[in-house]
Write a sequence for this structure.
C-alpha cells in the first residue's frame, strides 16, 4: 500500500501511514515494519518521540476532517474539525508540546491540544 505520511521518531525509529489506513513502525532502522494500528480513511499523521501525536482521517460522521490523538502510539476517540476539507493528498497535521496544527487544502486550523477546540486561521495557506 502507498505511503501517505512519514514521522521520524528517532535514530532507528520511524512510522509510516499507508493508504490502507495502516500505521507501521520500525524500531530497528527500517529492517522490519510491524503494524501498530489501523484507521479507516486515514489522511495524515504526526508522532512525537514519546508516542503522543495525532492522526487525521475522513469519516462519514464528520463534515470536515476527523482528528484523533495518539497516546503511546495508538489513536483515541476522534474530534471533528468542521470545515477542514478532508481531501486525500491535501491534508497535513503536526503536533508539539504546546499546539496542534492541521492544514486542509488552503486552510489552516490550530488547537491547544489535539482533542481541544480547533480554530480556523484567518489567512489562506496557498495565498
Amino acid at each position: 500500500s502507498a505511503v501517505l505520511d512519514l514521522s521520524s521518531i528517532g535514530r532507528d525509529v520511524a512510522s509510516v501511514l499507508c493508504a490502507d489506513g495502516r500505521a507501521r513502525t520500525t524500531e530497528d532502522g527500517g529492517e522490519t515494519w510491524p503494524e501498530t494500528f489501523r484507521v479507516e480513511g486515514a489522511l495524515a499523521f504526526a508522532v512525537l518521540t514519546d508516542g503522543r501525536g495525532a492522526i487525521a482521517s475522513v469519516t462519514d460522521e464528520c463534515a470536515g476532517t476527523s482528528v484523533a490523538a495518539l497516546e503511546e502510539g495508538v489513536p483515541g476517540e476522534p474530534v471533528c474539525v468542521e470545515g477542514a476539507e478532508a481531501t486525500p493528498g491535501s491534508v497535513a497535521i503536526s503536533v508539539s508540546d504546546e499546539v496542534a496544527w492541521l492544514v486542509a487544502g488552503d486552510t489552516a486550523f490550530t488547537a491547544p491540544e489535539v482533542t481541544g477546540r480547533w480554530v480556523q486561521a484567518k489567512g489562506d495557506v496557498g495565498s
User: Anything to note?
Assistant: The mean pLDDT is 93.
